[in-house]
User: Fold these one by one.
Assistant:
Number 1:
Amino acid sequence: MIIAYFNLKHITYCRLIAYCHYDIMQQMINYDSERKTVFGPSDLKLEGSPSKCLFIFDDEIWEDLILTNQNLETFPVTNVFGRQFNTYRYIDVNGEKILLVYPTMGAAGAVCDMELLIASGINKIVAFGTCGRLDKNIAQNTIILPTAAYREEGTSYHYLPESDEIEIDSYAFKICNDIFNKNGFTTVSGKIWTTDAVYRETPGKVALMKSRGCVGVEMELSALLALAKYRNIKFTEFLIGDDAVDGNAVDPINRRNEDILKSAIEILNQI
């Protein structure tokens, strides 16, 4: 009886601890509307005080068109912790400097990069990169125009209240659609699944996201949208369909990297 009483008491105690831990965790992961923080992003003091930026997640375009361009101004950037980012570059468009950035992969890192840029005066950002294709009838290299991002990452919940998805700005979407159509691109539109765990895209999750209207999967969009809305800056993103998550049913189309970059600059100047 004494042993039984001790076990019962011990189980009750463990349940109490587990409940308290769960309650604390719920408070930690719930959206906090308080805007005051312990510390914030530092000012990078960008030369020339640019206000526009291209967030280029695409390795092929960055390596082939940006790194090889000897005419671009370059400079290293160090944050408040002394960590040096990838060297930023400027491109001059009609006398105006546009910042070119190769951001950190993943929601948390990309948001940190974007926070620093916003604190430095950047108020218009167009992001682009590749995504996995969830529809086998979407050809590789198709331009995918997101309508919304499904939130399966953790960072966005620090910037916006809980919801299943975050919508793309409709005006920016129209500009993207108009420019890519004008420039002769094949495009599709639909929701994008943003996940933290690229190696945990299970068949069940793929089927679920497809049933919810997702046509692509990547790792940053929902978090960047949340930050842009929180900081009230102009932001949009387009994607280049790459790996086929669910197989291929059609042949790939040509990848027009120079035209993609030019289109991104057009979009940036119009949003």
Number 2:
Amino acid sequence: MFDWAYNHPIQAALAGTFFTWSITALGSSLVYLFSKASKKVFNGMLGFSAGVMIAASFWSLLSPAIQLAEEQGMNPVFQASAGFLCGGLFILLIDKFLPHMHVMTQHKEGINSSWRRSILLVIAITLHNFPEGLAVGVAFGYAATITAGSPAALAAIGGAVALAIGIGLQNFPEGAAVSIPLKREGMSKNKAFMIGQFSGMVEPIAGVIGALMAITMQSILPFSLSFAAGAMIYVVVEELIPESQMMETTKIATIGAMLGFTIMMALDVALG
């Protein structure tokens, strides 16, 4: 499997992000089984997702970026810092100008728009998940730039696989956390499921873009890896953490975040 992923990084990125999308759809399908879920469960889900994304940002993206910058004779501090901040700024600008609505709070952001609520929700979900797909794609593309068969190449592919698995794990509760509240607000099960699984539909597109960036622009690969990390952390701090702490059961969200971080860290160390 690792040889195939090394020789076909774009297809590997597509396969990895189709996996993450399918897990999102699986989580979203829980709307057919449950019409509501407790606040504690939702807080735990969001906290878990936040923990996975924080761990993935460092272990799968920032750490390889710093190491690669050193190997290429670049300034690792500048490459990691600039890429990280640019990734966050990129999502900030989209967040500021693109009309969308947060799923949990129903808060509208971006420029004023008369678009329907369902469209605004889909845009928000797409904005949230684009960095995740981008990160998986960049990780697979990065692995393909290392000397074939070397321990570093195998470690990089293992890290990319771990990242895809980790993103998939956190996408399951994420899909449920979107679809079930929408059903509770009166939306039909089918429509709630469709909007919920939309949260992963953008990931294959972003994955291919990320892999192409990593392969064709190897000179800025440390920057690209850090960019993906910054975009993910922005989403965590802007959305997941605040929404998980809205209720009184904040300790559940904190425990979920710790668990998610640990699982993602263990996956990356074991496979990478």
